Amino acid sequence: MSEQPQLSVVVPVYNEQDNVEPLIREILAALRGKLPFEIVYVDDQSKDGTLSVLQRLKTEVPELRVVRHLSNSGQSTAVRNGVKAARAPWIATLDGDAQNDPADIPNLLAERDKADGDTKMFAGWRVKRQDSGSKRWASKWANVLRSRMLRDSTPDTGCGIKLFERDAFLDLPYFDHMHRYLPALMQRAGWKTISVPVNHRHRASGSSKYTNFGRAMVGVRDLRGVSWLIDRSRRTRTEEL
Hints:
The chain is α/β, with parallel strands linked by helices. It has helices spanning 17-31, 50-58, 75-85, 105-114, 133-150, 166-170, 182-188, 212-231; strands at residues 7-13, 37-43, 64-68, 90-93, 119-126, 162-165, 192-198. α1 (17-31) packs parallel to α2 (50-58) and α5 runs parallel beside α8 (212-231).
């Protein structure tokens, strides 16, 4: 692509070979003709045919770029490396399992265009989640605990579809699993965030890479760490003389 993109859609994937092409086709349908954009897929050392599908589609889709991890590093690292590789000033993220709906990206862009310049993140809010009962229950209580500890006024930080400014994201402290706490981290940096209702879909193929127990064990430690970061934050506006 020769035209400078205004939006980069970053999609981290691990073993999602059957979801890659349908999701890319949906992204194209949602954004072509609306603004210059690129799609940055980050393959986290998939063991199935994910990379082969991406390589084939790269020859057909001029907007598509592919970044490959040389070692399996997790979703937060994949998102960050995708953002670092991105060429646009604004980033939209989607989960690679295709449960997020790319048709919601224009809605997030419209919310951005209405907001003030201090709002740097527009976080998807899955009002009607299409997950198992146990997953919805675990998420509900995790959100209650997180909200009480972090006071981030965000009903759903786990939603994969988000829109944010690239520079603001790259200025955040990086750590594994940070993708689950982006609104709180943005607020810590002094920016506003807005939650936007979005569509949520059943997983069509493949399997989840997380378990409720695994999320809980990691989440407790991460919550304490993010809470510590917020308590120690100091923000000072400056001016050049």
